[in-house]
């Protein structure tokens, strides 16, 4: 047992004995360490001004990932290297990404700039990136700039981020790896007393025991949702159990049957497996939050919290995803769609926690399509999200699985449309009408700030039509904007 | 980025040849500090011991109604709370309005809009104060709120009197016109979303004085309102700001309330007090760009030449006047875009609604006016079956038809036409028009649109007295220079541009010029940094101050060395006196010994402005800035999704003081305007509560939204015909309206679905708004008899 958290900063190991369960990394930096280079823009992980980099050993290699420090809890950086904008200047010299940003006019008011610099720092250290504007804009989708219009920032990234790393962090990488290994122990962390604590068990059994004792504790995986409960709802969460150090819980295993994702596998680590499942899944994954959100956020956490802003469940549901749950003395498996009982309500018992999800791979005679509609392409929550899985024999639909997000209080299947489409011919659009019509009785969408009920219904029907058009062989390049490359994969 | 040859060479006709900084694409003065996290914003200033934190409290669900009880007991006893302040704790006047006296710092008896501040919690930490602020129990007797422009028209409530420009007889003009078209355009507002939210720190000083660090575009107004609220003389208050993390108009008047609350708390507790708004509070409580309902009617001669125009601008101003007078006047001044209206009536109503008080936002009403003109042109073109570009050119101001509806001549109509023609050529508009037609013929779901639109933006405050500025320049005996002026830095590069001008005036390298924070005790009685005028005014004032000091040195040296003043030159940190050569430090030391005054307060007032609002006559603007933009978009006619595929911009900045900074303003302004017209949607629910108050729900453009193919150039100008600083032109606001081309291109794409029918597309063109227009145009009957269709 350890009652401190430890991390690396500026080459030194920092060990903290006092860590509040709700203390964020941003507050630690600005209020405790008095390092004010990192800025707060929104306090909810949507603007990127507070971006820091966390260096961790992944499969033995040092990897830097961008993280929104405003919603990252201090306990979650245990064992990592914390890099902030202050750490980049070496011997009075600007880091290559800082230099490019300054010289190519990548800053105007400068307030978002440290966040961009840190995102670009992680791109600078990322391996296997192809130099392109698209690669850059995807990488910085979680950083908002209100002054420049981004062009000079993208130029600065193209100018500085695609050569092999040659900075102080690269020079001392071996030393860093060594120090991170030292920090990586298999001791449970428990800071605080029985009423107020932050804990980080390293085994599932340890978690089951601790959660069994404290079923009122808050389980935290990536904190991309829980963080907002703290910063925005001002909820006091006295008992925090962080799952990030539980061995093996972050696994992503691909098989011919499908993909098994542990509860703490992040969107980032599961993205490749998802895009191999289907290009549309990969495209959906890349539009979840931003690089920062995907580096921390987990599918398991999103599902377990029943977050109303989950964009993956409709797709996971049509693919027939199952959920694994465990408690101290029990475990069970259930279809994901059965888990969402009602708005904000899930079928999770006291002391029970999600350990993983299994996403079946579509069969060769199944066609999967997924469409996300939002006001902004990147880092937005869908107004409507439609997912479709058609099983096809002799160009006729033998089974249709259809689910929508944004059309009901929870991600929900469309039983009427699914039934009506059985027997529909992909060659004859006149056989699709019954399915389209049935959506009207399948859903009663609401009007909110993202879209009106009318638009949602109209769009749901349009998305079903698109899916059928594509299933019947129309080129997706003619059916949708920014289509992922589908043909190659199928 | 492309620069004209003359700009590369540096030095235009009539300019000194020794300029080392002016016209050069130098980086922002704070660039290295920005990228290394060492640029200090107000929340980064080390806090004095015992600093307290202020959080505004409000009735979290009330929209409009009388407060029947305010129970702050739980707030006062919450952990960490030092004081709780309400309206009755204000020693002076409870008002922080810029002009009309109608913005209470703390609500007194009535809640006037969703988010109005009722009390302020002062706590030992910001976290403690935030938690305490939520414990208030405020009972409100709700009354039915007036939310939309339509509600306000029905209730006939306004914050300011109606106003109009009238020329000729639009009634006769309409009758004489061959064709009269009409329509309604809804134009949404816009949240500033400066990355640094509203923030202020007040430090009490002796004798009741107050030093206020405020993220503000208008330090003088901070000084005035703080003094007014505290009931102390202006001379006891100093306001200072080194830099803002973005302003865009949102910190012109809207920074006042937070500075006042910090100062009120500091005066009350005797300790330093800081306020930094939470992002949601900021977005709920502060005003935004005005949204409009525009009712338009236009008559033309059958070929597309405009005969008469009648526009009614119905602006939602919110609960108070704020800057709505100037904003709405500017909408009217720009209702012509770049087109000659022979007979016109341009009406404006400033509607009072129970919503946050709308305020300045880059463009200051101009964008809404110009967008309306472009809609009218599109309507003429679409109904005639002609290309909108032809109709634009047909109606441009020219030598014979060059009077705006408010009587100011458009003197540079040749520049406007030349610039537009250049972009028409360089963007390959007509070739791409054919490509767009071919694409649309081949695609059933996706449709492309193309548009090329002009910008003509009037430069000067239309409130005449604001067109003045001061600067304070000191030359020290080691040859270094300290520079101060009344303009504020919000990222636009003002400090850098002014420093370049001062460096070249003294013939010194820019590292010798120390730029200092804007401070009301150094340069008093300043106007806001707004109306794009920051450089025009402050660089001129600073240049005058530097030139005055230099002239004193020249006089001193010519006496000392018995030479003519012409024999003396300042260059490369040296002073040349005939054959002799001195360092500036040597000269400064000698001059000091000789008791020469080496400090000067420069002052500049813009000439030629004669606007008289009461008679609606005279010249409101010193000059116009011009630009043009060509945008190509693709829309998905099944979902309303849209991508901007290519954009070409050409913009006139006169002789650029700093091409790198100007390009940054042009690109940034365009993208901000594009956000306003596409993804940025403010949504109020039926009860009148703003539902989009965080970046999770309010979507400004992200990096992937900028066009894949983005070509930006400065127009090869012959220089501003007016005597501005080095014949440059203002650049802050005009580029926002370059984004009108994106809206025009979306309109064009929708119009392709049913030629001859004018799309009913409102702004912002969200997927839902585009689908609404698509549905309507598909349901409209096909039109017949289009010439050329």
Q: How many strands in all of chain A?
A: 20
For this structure, the CATH topology of one domain in chain B is Aldehyde Oxidoreductase, domain 4
Most extensive interface: A-B, 85 and 88 residues
Strand content of chain A: 15-25%
In which range does the helix fraction of chain B lie? 25-40%
Protein name (chain A): Xanthine dehydrogenase small subunit
Enzyme class (chain A): oxidoreductase
InterPro entries (chain A): 2Fe-2S-bd (IPR002888), 2Fe-2S-bd_dom_sf (IPR036884), 2Fe-2S_ferredoxin-like_sf (IPR036010), 2Fe-2S_ferredoxin-type (IPR001041), 2Fe2S_fd_BS (IPR006058), Ald_Oxase/xanthine_DH-like (IPR016208), Beta-grasp_dom_sf (IPR012675), CO_DH_flav_C (IPR005107)
EC number (chain A): 1.17.1.4
Give structural notes.
The complex is a heterodimer of chains A (490) and B (789). Chain A is an alpha+beta fold. Chain A has helices at residues 25-32, 96-103, 113-125, 133-139, 151-160, 168-171, 173-183, 204-213, 226-231, 267-277, 279-286, 291-296, 299-304, 313-318, 336-339, 415-420, 433-442, 453-471, 476-479, and strands spanning 5-9, 12-16, 51-58, 61-68, 81-83, 189-192, 197-200, 218-220, 239-242, 252-254, 258-262, 322-327, 330-335, 340-342, 345-346, 353-360, 366-373, 384-393, 396-405, 412-413. In chain A, strand 8, helix 9 and strand 9 (239-242) form a beta-alpha-beta unit. In chain A, helix 2 packs antiparallel against helix 5 (151-160), helix 10 (267-277) runs antiparallel to helix 11 (279-286) and helix 17 (433-442) runs antiparallel to helix 18 (453-471). The longest helix of chain A is centred in the C-terminal third of the chain and has 19 residues, at 453-471. The N and C termini of chain A lie far apart (50 Å). Chain B is α+β, with helices and mostly antiparallel strands and 789 residues long. Chain B has 20 helices and 27 strands. In chain B, a hairpin with a 5-residue loop joins strand 9 (199-204) and strand 10 (210-214). In chain B, helix 11 (366-384) packs across helix 12 (388-395) and helix 11 runs parallel beside helix 19. Chains A and B meet through helix 2, helix 3, helix 4, helix 5 and helix 18 of A and helix 2, helix 18 and helix 20 of B. Chain A: Residues 190-364 form the FAD-binding PCMH-type domain. Chain A: Keywords: FAD, Flavoprotein, Iron, Metal-binding, Oxidoreductase. Chain A: It is an enzyme of class 1 (oxidoreductase). Chain A: This is Xanthine dehydrogenase small subunit.
